Amino acid sequence: MGKVVCSSVDLDEKWHNKLQEIRDFIEKEGDLDEGLLGKWCFNQRENQGKLSLDQIASLETIPGWYWKRDSDVGLLGKWHNKLQEIRDFIEKEGQL
User: Fold this and answer.
1) What does the pLDDT look like over 58-67, one tens digit per residue?
2) What is the rounded (10 degree) CA torsion for 7, 12, 14, 15?
3) Are 93 and 54 in contact (CB under 8 A)?
């Protein structure tokens, strides 16, 4: 029996299709469930080092996306997260 080979184009297309499915679900439901879509997101977080820069940037456009929960990053991590939020706000609005 022949070996089944998936090209990187097929895998990339499947990845982007799943990303779109997540976006559509969030748009319809307002939040992500803990089912299969939530598991896919968890797997992306766990394998962040294997993702392309494009994939990372695409995931970060999902409303509410996070790489680590606040409880996982500790007090210093929370401080840095808030600092980044302030920087993002100032960049967008021009001031606090």
Assistant:
1) 998 888 788 8
2) 140
3) no
